[in-house]
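Lecture notes, unit on protein representations.

Consider one protein chain, 321 amino acids long.
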Amino acid sequence: MAVRLLVILGLVAIPASVVSSQTVKPVTVGLLSPALASIPPIFIQAFRERGYEEGRNLRIEFRSAKGKFEELPKLAAELVSLKPDALVGGTTPAAVALKQATDSIPIVFYFVSDPVLSGLVKSFANPGGNVTGASVADEYWSVKTLQLITDTLPGICCVTILMNPSNQTTAFLKVIYEKTAKSLGIELRMMDAGNPDQLNEVLAIPLEGRFKTALLSTPESLFTVGRTQIVEYAQRQNIPLFAPYRADAVAGALMSFGASFDGQYRAMADYVDKILKGAKPADLPVQQPTTFELVLNLKVAKALGLQIPQLVLARATDLIE
């Protein structure tokens, strides 16, 4: 009996030592944002869905420029100095800052307009280097959004587009906008703002004449930070605002249309998961969105005295009433 008891005790002791020696070191992921005040819940949820949990096997180092884009290079360098297992950059400015800070630590981006034009990757199919991620298909978004504006406001003649001239993709997208506008029979006016001061300046100038009809805010970190200003500008002008993110519609835009917010975070988490398991960013093609969200704010439509066509209502993925 004594022998049997010793054997049992031995069996109990062995697993304890094995578990101790095989304790998994938590992975560290660095997140850089131009504007977020805190880590979005969907970011944490996306990792949890893939088996990573803060405090157990995941550590997140978060840095935000809080709208001060000139701070991004310093914050990127700070994250790199921590030697995380992977870095994540939300939007083009953050991803570019991370790439400039390291060519060895894997970088995953999301909500990036055109990663090729911005120099983040060599091509969508073969990224090369240490960077890959999920883009937001700006070319498709540009065409589709103008079509949605004309569908929502039948007979509209002109649209004002708020753009950032310092973005590497702006020149390319202007050509797309102009070509699409011509096919739709509408005129465009570009309102340029490349930094917060310029945004303040252009939003102090009232729209006039035939261009006081509709405002389109493009997918830019600068305009995300200035969302409240842009919404208030449209309200003062008493014109409908069209924008890329659901948060824009919640804040007071008539319509938001863009890549699925949750989809971008889940795609990012997929990339990080694969990299942590041994994949190389250079071998992971850039993903383009397959799911888009169209959110209509019917309270804003009512305030503007607009009747949304049934065709547009039928396409909406969500209505704010």
